[in-house]
Amino acid sequence: MEQDRCSPSPRDSAQRNRQATAPAVAARPERLSDIVENGLCVGCGLCQAIAGKDRIEFVITPEGRERPVERRKISPDDWQRILRTCPGIRVEGASSELCGHDAESDRIWGPYHRVCLGHAADPDVRFRAASGGILTALAAYLVESGKVSFILQVRASPDRPVRTETVMSEDGASVVRSAGSRYGPATPLASIMDALDRDEPFAFVGKPCDVGALRLLAREDGRVARHCKAMLALVCGGAPEFRKTGDLLDELGLREDEISLLRYRGYGNPGRTRIETRDGRAFEKTYLEMWEEESQWCIQNRCKICPDAIGEVADVAAADYWPGGAPSGEDAGFNSMIARTPVGRDLLRDAEAAGAIRIVRELTMRDMDDTQPHQVRKKESVWARLAGMRAAGHLAPEVVNLRIRELARERPMAANLAQARGARARVRQGRMTEPHAMLPGVDGWSEKEDGAGLKG
Ligand SMILES: Cc1cc2nc3c(=O)[nH]c(=O)nc-3n(C[C@H](O)[C@H](O)[C@H](O)COP(=O)(O)OP(=O)(O)OC[C@H]3O[C@@H](n4cnc5c(N)ncnc54)[C@H](O)[C@@H]3O)c2cc1C
Ligand code: SF4
Ligand code: SF4
Asked: Which of 186, 205, 233, 279 has the most crowded CB, counting CB atoms within 10 A?
């Protein structure tokens, strides 16, 4: 596996070295910190929603990760529910009940009813959104047509635009204000109980791991199936740590409290990363300046071993559509989209009929391979990476019904061995572990260290 610039800071390394001498890792997590310290937490917020804010608090660690900390003892029942639903340790593909018996299935891309190319019909939505605005257009259609009362999603915080907050958008305009990709920590599921408590129909937009966790929660809490009418996912290359944003601000010599706008992309496809300050300055970076060098993505450990980054249990998964896998310039904005369930298939049909989205043409899964080559590589490598982690005695997520073993079997033994050895080496070097997440002012961590060194 690649050495990435983002993960090892001197402080991180020192803490990791201390951990390297710690007792062997448990085969099964015994407490919340086992999930975090084994590098499996992705910061979705679900554990906090289950156990309550009085028991689990979220912190941004000095390394730039948004992580849960057990402030008061989690009850045994809640701990069992967390074990059954946390996407860090359990990842499940779609059952035939969810995707329907008439769904087709692709070896890489999983179950689907339809795969097509399109964009939001409203040119303004298409322009503002991350790619072609399909997720925003579908969500806005659901809420404007009265099929749901609100959309649970994330957006840039209006008060602190560098941070990402969760919101329940109750009309189309509010959904459009949440358009765009947030390449930093986001905890959409921390608010899931508040959404369920409203006892109203809603839809959810999130990353594949967020949606996967919500599907698992549906088994625990009947309100999910009753109230959540659609789950929409973005296809995901990995969620960067806050450090990525912190580095950008450092490079530009900016403090967080100076910033009035931080847009990672959008306003074009892919659009530029744009930062505006309260005193009227503006800074921009192209998409390729931000993301061309994969070792500088600063993605979380869990993302490097993600068994489902393509939204296999979403109703609709939407992605970029760039032949070859990277933008060759700006375009008007397009999405590939995969309707995976009957709910997703009908949603695309109804939204198109209502004039909310435009479907340009049908695609094949080989078009998906061509436009998402990194997803194909990851899907084919994950099983060997997990095997390498386990061989080194490290905790690894339990993966069900995602074809990763079958995909590994199709690959040359040498390729699997290389992935497994890479993962084993990564574990042995302490690069899969994370330092203990601490509460500011409680565990001897100064408040100044909050926010991955972001000043302000
Ligand atoms: C971390 C990350 C990694 C990505 N990696 C890939 C990739 O490898 N390949 C690819 O094709 N596309 C990737 N994308 C998705 C891509 O940027 C677009 O979001 C996707 O194509 C949908 O486009 P859209 O125009 O329909 O989105 P929009 O209409 O702009 O809607 C985006 C929706 O996603 C939600 N959202 C944004 N950021 C987050 C977040 N961090 N967590 C939860 N929800 C969020 C917003 O609330 C909004 O509802 C990634 C996005 C993110 C945030
Ligand atoms: S992945 Fe989500 S549920 Fe699991 S420990 Fe992290 S925040 Fe909690
Ligand atoms: S790569 Fe996987 S674990 Fe990481 S944010 Fe994306 S869906 Fe979640």
From this structure: 233
